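Q: Second attempt. The first request was missing the SMILES, so the protein and S-adenosylmethionine are both included now.
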Amino acid sequence: MSHPDEAAWSKWFNALGRRVIATRNHGHDYEETGDRDHAQILRLANLKSAPRRVLEIGCGDGRVLSWFASAGADTVGNDVCAQALAEWKKSVQAAGRRGRHDVVHGGATELASLAPASFDLIYSIFVLQHVSRRDEIATYISEATRLLAPGGVAVLQFRRSGLKTLAHQTVTDCLRLPTKMPSFDRHWRGHRFSRTALQRIVPEDPAPPSYEIVTVGMHHWLVIPGRVTGFGH
Ligand SMILES: C[S@@+](CC[C@H](N)C(=O)[O-])C[C@H]1O[C@@H](n2cnc3c(N)ncnc32)[C@H](O)[C@@H]1O
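A: Got both inputs this time. The predicted holo structure:
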């Protein structure tokens, strides 16, 4: 059965293509924003060496994942939108990246098909704010905990609540109006989390071994370490 949000995301992807992926970066160069976000994820993860196995939750057409693939990592891209995944597969093949590049079509429950402790880096960017069901977000967190290899790290981005975010959202909504972006849609506007709300959503079973919430601009990042630290040992 397809994910309940798949039809909406497919409609937007068909109508807007890449712009549905990188709307927050309105007016900026797509490649440049992918490079910048890739660098930010690496800074937050603070791994001791370059990740060899990378999973992106909600990878879209690979705006960010392509940077990990070009650095030689094996990748798995997960997304509810089949068209976005098809674009990602096409571009990674066309670029002739070495390594293995798989996709998981669907939401959090579909990650059950992946082997435990099999990723050095798991990340999500501009996605969890659009996920309408809290239990799905909790499943993504527990799956990240299960899938992290010893010494690996998960960095999951959430949109912060508060006045600054609200003001920013209002301005971007106004900018998007002429482009007929689905800016006032419930899923599109998405969820905002205070630090306490985020702490409440972190599941107890399986509980991450520990975690940190790092706040950067409009976002909180949930940073979850793998079970044993000391990458490569
Ligand atoms: C704004 S785009 C961001 C894509 C990519 N992370 C990036 O930064 O370029 C949001 C993506 O999340 C996907 N998505 C929405 N709900 C999802 C869910 N429950 N599970 C996985 N992906 C989801 C959409 O299909 C879309 O590709």
